Amino acid sequence: MTTIREHLRAQPVLRTERLALSQLGPEHLDVVVAGLADADAMRLTGTRGTFTREQVRVHLAGLPGADDRADFAITGPDGAYLGEVVLNELEDDDRSVNYRIALTGPALRGRGYGTEAGRAVVTWAFDVVGLHRVSLEVYAFNPAAQRSYEKIGFVVEGRAREVLRDGDGWVDAITMGMLASDPRPAQPR
Questions:
Q1: Across 73-99, average pLDDT
Q2: Any residues with CB less than 8 A from the CB of 102 and at least 6 apart, and which?
Q3: What backbone phi and psi angles, to 5 degrees, belong to 40?
Q4: CA proximity to 100, closest of 79, 121, 123, 130
Q5: Cβ(84)–Cβ(23) under 8 Å?
Q6: Phi/psi at 186 (nearest 5 deg)?
């Protein structure tokens, strides 16, 4: 029987109607560095740090073959890099992971790419990897992301009040989760 870590280590290419999701790695250095310069994406994900090209290179070099996470590069029909979707923070005993996604550039948001990629990754996580739970946090100023997560099948589980300083105010984080036993929403045709 293949273990969760063996499945993560042998991360496959996932395909959807419009997208291919492949192992994020060193060959994505330039597009990942460019994505980290997207101030809107950094705000939406609560990312405050700055990363040198060398730090990103080292991170990407460690991803292929990792057995505690799955990092997928999202590419469109023309092969262009659209972003990444990640399962990380594996808890072996609980068979659970954290979920996160980032699309590169505002022009890609609102076109269904995140939902489509997320469905593929969550389906793989539950049906192939054998995970029990996938969870995430989304900031209250990002209702479009919350709607996308709900379309995938995530359920709101709670709210952490004022966790992120945003300008002069505070923002809540909405916690969401999905269990392997939860019903999965029908995909639109």
A1: 95
A2: 35, 41, 44, 45, 83, 84
A3: -65, -45
A4: 121
A5: no
A6: -65, 145
Report the distance separating Cα 34 and Cα 53, nearest Å: 10
Tallying the residues shown for the chain, one arrives at 189
Q: In what order do the strands lie in the sheet with 96-103?
A: 14-15, 20-23, 70-75, 81-91, 96-103, 133-139, 169-179, 155-166
CA distance 126 to 14: 14
pLDDT value at 188 more than 70: no
- Cβ–Cβ contacts within 10 Å for residue 67, how many? 15
Is this structure's pTM higher than 0.85?
yes
The answer for residues whose C-beta is within 8 angstroms of residue 144's C-beta and 6 or more apart is 109, 110
Phi, psi (5° rounding) for residue 86?
-130, 140
The answer to whether the CB of 126 falls within 8 A of the CB of 64 is no
pLDDT of residue 189: 55
Cross-strand pairs, 84: 73, 102
Tell me the pLDDT tens digit for each residue of 160-182.
Answer: 999 999 889 999 999 999 999 99
Asked if 47 and 56 count as a contact pair (C-beta separation under 8 A), the reply is no
Q: Collapsing DSSP states into helix, strand and coil, what is residue 74?
A: strand
